[in-house]
């Protein structure tokens, strides 16, 4: 799962139109994108995946192995509060996910996740699984913003780590570069398919970030995560979850990428302090499908 903006993977991407030169306003842009996502809506924050998805996808034939980790340094003492969607409390929780991603085509990738959790004072436990497809639309620079999509099916261990057994999630992916800044927004729409809430409507959340490409091995950023309730029934603000993470990210030798940060909760129902550390290793193993046609908007 890429966290560092990658060069276009096809000739059509490299030869696309030059971006329009606009006076960089990345901090205002990320607020505008995430604010557009924060219309009346709802969704829980996923503590197994504090990551903002960019427009770029895993290149065809490449495999990525990633581990996402988050520790709640200062959370809640009761289940169902903060990042704890189930019966186990969030205080002291270690969320640990392993993700295997494969580039199916030049524009589409598939991923399998295994989610683990270690509650405070307990051992590591299985918490759920996910299957995901993610893709990008059109060539980079063809539109004022680069667009992608994300579709995920989730299973949860109930009631310990969630009260919903199965959920479907969809995200549009929006990205725009302003000089050395990359601004990304991933509005989240979730529907419970089995378990508590299956008769409810669609939940909403958001993931957004701005990254400054200072150096390939060390670049700063700000990331935002939140959820506000069902689209047709907002939670009171105090019961919503909103987080801001100052982050450092970059590439290390031997194809290793990292993304680390400390997050602060902005509402009463948010966990107060969360520390995250994501590591990713990428290798080429061979392509199953042929190259995408030049100018293709989907495949």
Produce a short descriptive summary:
The chain has 299 residues and is mainly beta. It has two helices and 13 strands, in the order ααβββββββββββββ. The longest helix is centred in the N-terminal third of the chain and has 12 residues, at 26-37.
Quantity of strands, as a count: 13
What string gives the helices and strands in order?
A: HHEEEEEEEEEEEEE
Instruction: Report helical residue fraction.
Output: under 10%
Alpha carbon gap, first and last residue: 19 Å
CATH topology: Porin
Radius of gyration: 19 Å
Walk across the major sheet and give the strand order.
Answer: 1-2-3-4-5-6-7-8-9-11-12-13
Description of the molecule:
There is one protein chain. This protein is mainly β and 299 residues long. It has one domain (24-284): monomeric porin ompg (Porin, Beta Barrel). The protein has helices spanning 11-14, 26-37, and strands at residues 62-74, 94-103, 108-118, 125-137, 146-156, 164-178, 181-195, 203-212, 219-230, 233-234, 241-252, 256-265, 273-284. A 12-stranded antiparallel barrel has the order 1-2-3-4-5-6-7-8-9-11-12-13. The longest helix has 12 residues, at 26-37. Mean pLDDT is 87; it is low at 1-24 and 27-43.
Overview features:
299 residues, mainly beta, Porin, 2 helices, 5% helix
SSE topology:
Elements: H1 11-14, H2 26-37, E1 62-74, E2 94-103, E3 108-118, E4 125-137, E5 146-156, E6 164-178, E7 181-195, E8 203-212, E9 219-230, E10 233-234, E11 241-252, E12 256-265, E13 273-284
Antiparallel strand pairs: 1-2, 1-13, 2-3, 3-4, 4-5, 5-6, 6-7, 7-8, 8-9, 9-10, 9-11, 11-12, 12-13
